Amino acid sequence: MAAVTAERRRAPRAHRLRAFWHRTPRSFRIGAFILLVHLIVAVTGPFWAPYGFAQMGAGIPLSGMSWAHPFGIDQLSRDIFSRVVHGSHIVILLSLSGTALGLVVGAIVGLLSGYVGGWFDDILQRFIEALISIPFLVLALLAMAAAGPEVAGNPVLVVLVVALVYAPRIARMARAAAIDIATRDYVTVARLRGESPWSVMRRELLPNATGVLLVEFALRAGYAPVLIGSLGFLGFGLRPPTPEWGLMISENRALLMVSPITVLGPGLTLASLVVGLNLFTEGFARILGRSVRLGER
Amino acid sequence: MSGAETLLRAVDLQVSYRQQEGWLPVLHRINFAILRGETFGLVGESGCGKSTVALQLLGYRHPNSRVDGGHIEFGGRDLLELPRRELDRIRGNRISFVPQNPTTALNPGMRVGDQVCEILLLHKRAADQNQALQRVVELFGLVGLPSPKLLVERYPHQLSGGQQQRVCIAMALACDPDLVVLDEPTTGLDVTAQEQIVELLIDLRRRIGLSMLYVTHDLGLLSQIADRVGVMYAGHMVEIAPVAELFRQPRHPYTRGLIGSIPRIDRPEEPAARPLRGLLRRDELPEGCPFQPRCDFAEASCATNRQRLDRVAPGHEVACQRWRALLAPAVAAAGEPTTPPVRPEPEPPLLALDHLSIAYGAGGGALARFLGAAPFVAVHDLDLAVAPGETLALVGESGSGKSTVARAVSGLLRPYEGQVRLHGRSLAGLVRERPGEQRREIQYIFQNPDASLNPRARIGTTLARPLEMFFDLDRRAIRARVLEALDDVRLDAGYAERYPDQLSGGERQRVAIARALIARPTLLLCDEVLSALDVSVQANILDLLRRLRAEHQVAMLFISHDLAVVRSIADKVGVLFQGRLMELGRTADIFSAPFHPYTHSLLMAVPDPDRPRRSQTAGRRPAAGPPKAAGCPYAGRCAWQAGAICEQTAPPCRKTERGVAIYCHLPLDELTARAHWTPSDEPAAMPAPTTFPA
Question: Is B335 among the domain residues?
């Protein structure tokens, strides 16, 4: 019986990177491109935006779209395109970090709960169900009220509230994934070895649940700006002059029939971010699903 | 056979599948014909394209597959050219299909009778529902389902696996088809259920002149049922021959290897003598003969010359340019010589099971017990001992509790009663209550290598983890041990960087074995470690296990339903039925008379090319009832039942002079007298494979 051999060739690093890029799914490449555009706008936007985010007198209010004002002018005669550009970093920072925090907490709690099972899982699940049963706006308002008026409008609080709303929902998804993965033989092997639940979660469950979790992250992150916007609209969260997209959509909602572009502008920008994020994470999950075979073969 | 009419002919059939990198050809100019009334067997290892052929006969067009050329003639028309509407009139009606897994093939939300009615009504074979139901009852009787009138009302989950497969066969027969395509119809079933299904098919063929295409990986099985066999390798048809001739004079080197790889129950030492070497690698297929890289007889020109099926005898075709040169009886006998197993001296046992009972649902708590939820006792009062370095095999059909024993020993299940002892010390019930040293000493190898390796961890990481847990080593020492372990299972260092999905099933099972051995265990629990693998891979892994067992001085609890495998690896065998021990003794003694009636029925169920075909069906065995509280669990299914005593009192343990314990009411000489199965030296029904004509 001859030894089975695996031959591997080492290619130069740059070449391997290029080969890797060419083998990535198309969705990953498109998503990465959209996200890159958003990131560049978020970082450089404040330097080249034609108007300030609170600068009035940019043009005739509600005059519709034009080359000078691609997203039109709002009621207070502010240039909406400039506001969208200025608000870009707020959206990306607050909604992404809020969702990411929710993801980390939710994933850990959910995976552990699904793997350990028993009364630990029972109690945790009832608690999570209680949290989910509260409408998220009410939950957010409760958290804001509990924090007190002096910190209202603080961006850190907004991030924490987004995480609080999302964590239980993500935990449920993670738990379902963990219950599925925990029946696989490699988890049984780990258990027979005497690994602690934390170690099993980190080594066996988490790497195999990334696909589910990433998709969950992309979906949730897309809705976070709207959540932040509604908080601001109710007088908690960010205050109106802030050019947060969700806030702008709510402000201009009444004008939808008069000047639709004032809502469509920020709305479509948000949509493009969500689509980009979804494509990116979906492609990323597929790359992980095929493990790192892409470079070889 | 020459006078028979050709029912179906595949000509130059070529099919490709869509892959990431483009279209991958899976069938290369396949030619074969099926005559009316004959059974054509199609055999090959997994991935050779045999199921693709079967699906093409049904005109199944998957979006990811493409027919590149050729045609399938059936009833004067080309099946591949037919429009969908015409095809629908043929499928299920004139050509029908029996799938591999009846559990997923039947709709769980529909009564089985209605599912068969559907086909009858669809093809207008019955005027209305009532007439259709009547026909279904007839069909259920035909396929040997007990009380068909009641059964049509049942849902699939209320039937056993064998019964479900009978329903699928009834479904396939519903419209009196010209051809039935069976895709591994018994692979998911027990040995005994498999035997019954095969008997049924033989019987049906005789009674209604059924034509069949039987797709399987099990050449031994085809020897029982097929008239002619086509052997496929990597999408090529390499040999077509009448079944008797194929076993007597295999012409293609691959067929020889395949026949040599069948673990033979009557010749336990043989499989190690000539397994197929290497593995099928689709990325390294040469232009010419696909088998060239693995062939012992290959010449350089084999790699470039396309091989065509060449007639070597009437009805016998082979695609090998060297078949003439191979006529000399030079069957490769390379392989490693097998050393006779060392008989361990009587020592204190390594593992002892002490009146072990295991129950499911025993952890339900006081409330459940109060409400009368009796736990289901899967293993009952089991006494076993395994000496250091010894291999004890547990055999039995599924549901006999053999895996449950392994789970209790490993600490996944808490024993209900009794104890598990290692080195004479009692083990805690669950793995988390055991100290690290005991966890290290018992290692588990699972059946399915696809599920037992973390798909997101490199092989090196997977192998290093037990070392981090159990030994205090630095990174360099760990790395060295990992490479050593890979070398042990004959994989080279490059595998440490790979992920499981880059490995074949056999390679993954090697990694799983390496992961178990790297912890330096004293006891290996092997739970059906071969049953998910191809025949030729099985032979290699079996060989590897035998070698490693000797090198590492490790004892094994080897769980298998495959008696041939067990005979070639085990020192001792325990036969389990419904959680109770039926027979226990040294391997050689278990495989010779006297037999326990159940052991005997297991042995008779193994398809054996040398045994004459069964011309008539044996008496019907009723399905196993619920385990009886008193009496022998095998009573009711036993062909040799002594009388009412079997159902009332537990059978006594009878010791033969060779030290085999048999739990049966029948006296030993009676058991000896009734034995039909005899080991090796019975004159074979067919000439031995060494008689090659000059």
Answer: no
How many Å apart are CA B217 and CA B50, to the nearest integer?
A: 9
* 8 A C-beta contact, residue B381 and residue B588: no
Residues belonging to chain A: 297
With CA atoms as reference, the chain B residue closest to A194 would be: B432
A189 with B455: Cβ contact below 8 A: no
Q: What angle do CA B443, B445, B446 make, to 5 degrees?
A: 140
Q: What pTM did the predictor assign? A: 0.75
Partners of B13 in the beta sheet?
A: B30
State whether B454 and A204 contact (CB < 8 Å): yes
Contact (CB<8Å) B452/A189 = yes
Contact A29, A283 (CB under 8 A): yes
Q: Where are the domains of chain A?
A: 26-50+90-292
Looking at domain A26-50+90-292, its CATH architecture is Orthogonal Bundle (1.10)
B202 within some domain:
yes
Range of the domain at B219: 6-94+177-263
Domain stop point among B263, B290, B308: B263
Whether residue A291 and residue B432 make contact (CB cut-off 8 A), yes or no, is no
Q: Using a CB-CB distance cutoff of 8 angstroms, which residues of chain A are in contact with residue B335?
A: 1
Residue B196 has what pLDDT? 83
Closest to A205 measured CA to CA, from A283, A102, A112: A112
The answer on B378 and B256 residing in a single domain is no
Residue of A nearest to B282 (CA): A297
Instruction: Give chain B's domain count.
Output: 2
DSSP secondary-structure letter at B309?
-
Distance CA B544, CA B89 (A): 51
In the numeric block, the tokens 């050809």 are attached to: B25
A124 SS3 class: helix
Separation CA B608–CA B606 (nearest Å)? 6
pLDDT along chain B (694 residues), means of 10: 74 83 82 90 84 85 82 86 86 88 86 90 86 90 85 86 88 89 83 83 86 88 88 89 87 84 63 56 73 79 81 84 66 40 60 85 59 73 88 86 88 86 86 88 88 88 91 90 90 86 84 91 90 80 87 90 85 89 87 84 76 49 52 80 80 83 85 71 37 36
**Which chain B residues are Cβ-neighbours of A23 within 8 angstroms?**
20
